[in-house]
Design brief:
Layout lengths: L6 H19 L2 H28 L12 E2 L2 E2 L2 H7 L6 H17 L50 H6 L12 H11 L13 H6 L12 H7 L4 H6 L4 H4 L16 H9 L1 H17 L2 E3 L7 E3 L3 H8 L4 H15 L6 H15 L6 H8 L6 H22 L1
Helix pairs in contact: 3-4, 14-16, 15-16, 15-17
Length: 392
């Protein structure tokens, strides 16, 4: 005789009544059995989840597992020390606390972990090299790249590009300014040692890099595009890009003046230095469009690789070393186009925003021309002002 219930509410009421009647008519033994089964199932699921997480290492080559070890991940500071010889430790140590939470999400205890330092001797796990099945696709990074803009709105990428960009002020850190200044001045306190020829022999394809290395021609042929290996292996970067500073790989050697002269005089060896640069550009999602002008463009897989570079801080140290090396081997003209490309992507496109501080304080600062550095700083500020105007 009451007010009739709306149909959806009535259906819920009937279903609840039927379930209550069935429970009341069941025996205590049946109820206990049901509870016992649910408890066992929950326990099995928890144990299965735990064992699965431990037994399944990350196989995505685009996940930054370079810092992982067999017993866990080591700190960003350890990784920074691993890329020694760049003078960039202060910057990244400051960045670590702000970015540690985000970076740690990408650091998994994967089966492909190697040594704890650039010069370590830990061997990669079996099956570590060559597993780059998804390194050139976007499937593993579906967002934000595949996000479609809503009608009348902007996509995630467009919104990100419109955020206000703050240009880092010229670094006042003594280790930044002194390191880059010493490089630009040609290391006035260093002397050449004519007995050392390791770098020359390597670039003449007569000596293998070490540890877990190879001859330079074989590296260019077999390592190119193997992003998982290039990310996780920390023993090759000092060989491919020797500079007149000591690194943490004690098997490598500081570059000597007489080695620079001999490599530059040998067209084949000199060309191998350029090819090493192109291989690493590909690793970062870039392509050298013109070797004479140094112009760079996006590679086909730029979305995938930019996301990796945007959160892989130890590669910023690698890039500092790469640019310094280019300047030693008469490839100074390649530096400014690289810096200009990164500035555009960071400020205008919003794709490499986290590289901006390293780019302004280190990569730009290893350009030897005072005029070119001033020109790029002014250009970056103009880009930022334009970005601010669009954002507002």
């Amino acid at each position: 005789g009451g007010v009739p219930l709306p149909l959806p509410v009535y259906n819920v009421y009937v279903m609840a009544t039927v379930k209550a009647d069935a429970t009341a008519n069941s025996t205590p033994k049946q109820q206990d059995a049901g509870e016992s089964h649910e408890a066992t199932t929950d326990k099995d699921e928890m144990e299965g989840s735990k064992s699965g997480s431990e037994a399944e290492p990350c196989s995505d080559p685009n996940i930054d597992d370079s810092d992982s070890m067999d017993t866990g991940t080591h700190s960003q500071t350890d990784q920074i020390m691993a890329e020694g010889g760049t003078g960039q430790t202060g910057l990244n140590a400051d960045q670590t606390m702000a970015e540690e939470e985000t970076d740690q999400a990408g650091l998994n205890a994967a089966g492909g972990s190697t040594s704890t330092a650039e010069g370590g001797t830990g061997r990669p796990s079996a099956g570590y090299r060559g597993d780059n099945s998804s390194s050139s696709g976007d499937e593993s990074w579906g967002r934000p790249w595949k996000e479609e803009p809503k009608a009348g709105g902007r996509s995630h990428d467009q919104k990100k590009a419109k955020k206000k960009i703050r240009i880092p002020k010229p670094s006042s850190r003594w280790w930044s300014s002194s390191d880059t200044a010493e490089y630009r001045q040609g290391y006035p306190r260093k002397r050449d040692n004519p007995r050392l020829n390791v770098n020359y022999e390597f670039y003449m394809n007569k000596k293998q890099s070490f540890p877990q290395g190879d001859y330079i021609d074989k590296i260019h042929k077999e390592w190119w595009g193997d992003y998982h290996f290039l990310e996780g292996h920390h023993g090759y970067i000092q060989w491919l890009f020797p500079i007149r500073e000591s690194g943490m790989n004690f098997y490598s050697q500081e570059l000597q003046l007489h080695e620079i002269e001999k490599i530059c005089k040998n067209p084949e060896a000199h060309g191998r230095v350029l090819k090493s640069y192109e291989m690493m550009l590909d690793f970062y999602g870039m392509r050298l469009k013109d070797s004479k002008t140094g112009e760079i463009e996006r590679a086909e897989n730029w979305k995938n690789r930019f996301q990796h570079l945007n959160r892989s801080m130890h590669n910023y140290l690698r890039i500092t070393r790469i640019l310094k090396c280019l300047g030693e081997f008469q490839y100074e003209h390649l530096k400014a186009p690289f810096v200009k490309f990164v500035l555009w992507e960071a400020i205008v496109e919003g794709t490499l925003t986290r590289t901006l501080e390293s780019c302004m304080n280190y990569w730009l600062e290893v350009i030897r021309s005072d005029e070119k550095r001033a020109e790029l700083r002014k250009w970056a500020e103009q880009l930022a002002e334009g970005s601010d105007s669009e954002a507002s």
